[in-house]
Write a structure and sequence with these properties.
Blueprint lengths: L4 H14 L8 E3 L6 H8 L4 E5 L16 H6 L4 E4 L2 H5 L5 H13 L3 E6 L3 H5 L3 H12 L11 E4 L13 H15 L3 E4 L8 H5 L6 E2 L8 H10 L4
Length: about 230
C-alpha cells in the first residue's frame, strides 16, 4: 500500500530511464489498484510488464471493494500476485480462496504468481517443507501441466520486511523442493531482497527471479536489483 497515482507517475518516469538498457531481464511492476491506470498507460509501449497485487475470483457481482480480472486486463495487467503472505496472515485468505483465484487467473489469461512460505514458528519446528507442500497442494488443487503458465514465489514470512533474509542456500533448498514437487516452473525468491544480496540469490541454480518489496519503493535501488540479474 504505497504510491499515489502521481507518485507512481514520478516513479515510472525515473525507473524507465534507469532500466532503458536492460534487455535480457523480464521486469514486472505491481502498483496498488489506484495506480494501475497510470502505470498501464506509461508502460504500454515499454519492455516492462504490469501486474496487480490481488484479485477476486468472480467476474462480477455483489463483492463490494473487490476487483475482477476483466477490470485488471483492461488496464493492461498481465500478472497477478496471489496468496501473498500479508493477504494470508493479515486478511485471512485461505488456501481454498487462493486456489479459486489461481484458477480464475488461468481461465482468463492472466499469469498468477502464487506466494508460499512459512512463519518463524514453522521454521523453528522443522516444518518448512511441509508448510510449503501444503500451500502448493491446496493452492494448485485441480490443476495440472503448469509449466510456462504460473510462477511460484517463495517468501518466508519471517524474512519479509525484517532486513533478515533467508540465505541464498536456504532459498535454493526450498526452490529445489518446489521444482521437484511441481516440475519445471519458474520460482522467485522474496523476503528482504536488496541491491546487496540480489546477485547472491540469483546465483543459485533454482532461483529464477526475485519478488522485491521494500527495496522496490525507490526506483534507484530497484534498478540496481534489476541490473544484478543482467550480471552488472
Amino acid at each position: 500500500m504505497n504510491k499515489t497515482p502521481s507518485q507512481t507517475r514520478e516513479y515510472i518516469t525515473k525507473f524507465l530511464e534507469l532500466v532503458r538498457d536492460v534487455k535480457n531481464t523480464e521486469i514486472l511492476l505491481c502498483p496498488p489498484f489506484t495506480s494501475l491506470c497510470v502505470a498501464g498507460e506509461m508502460l504500454k509501449d515499454s519492455h516492462i510488464k504490469l501486474g496487480a497485487q490481488n484479485c477476486h475470483y468472480e467476474e462480477k457481482g455483489a463483492f463490494t471493494g473487490e476487483i475482477s480480472l476483466s477490470m485488471l486486463r483492461e488496464l493492461g495487467v498481465s500478472y497477478v500476485i496471489v496468496g501473498h503472505s500479508e493477504r494470508r496472515w493479515l486478511f485471512g485468505e485461505t488456501d481454498e480462496m487462493i486456489n479459486k483465484k489461481v484458477i480464475a487467473c488461468l481461465e482468463r489469461g492472466l499469469r498468477p504468481i502464487l506466494c508460499v512460505g512459512e512463519k518463524i514458528e514453522d521454521r523453528n519446528a522443522g516444518m518448512t517443507l511441509k508448510v510449503v507442500e501444503s500451500q502448493l497442494k491446496l493452492g494448485l488443487s485441480g490443476l495440472e501441466d503448469l509449466a510456462g503458465k504460473i510462477d511460484i514465489a517463495y517468501e518466508p514470512v519471517w524474512a519479509i520486511g525484517t532486513g533478515t533474509p533467508a540465505t541464498p542456500e536456504d532459498a535454493q533448498f526450498v526452490h529445489r523442493f518446489i521444482k521437484e514437487f511441481l516440475g519445471e516452473v519458474r520460482v522467485l525468491y522474496g523476503g528482504s531482497v536488496s541491491p546487496k544480496n540480489a546477485k547472491d540469490f540469483l546465483s543459485m541454480p533454482d532461483v529464477d527471479g526475485l519478488l522485491v518489496g521494500t527495496a522496490s519503493l525507490d526506483p534507484e535501488p530497484f534498478a540496481q536489483i534489476v541490473k544484478a540479474s543482467e550480471g552488472e
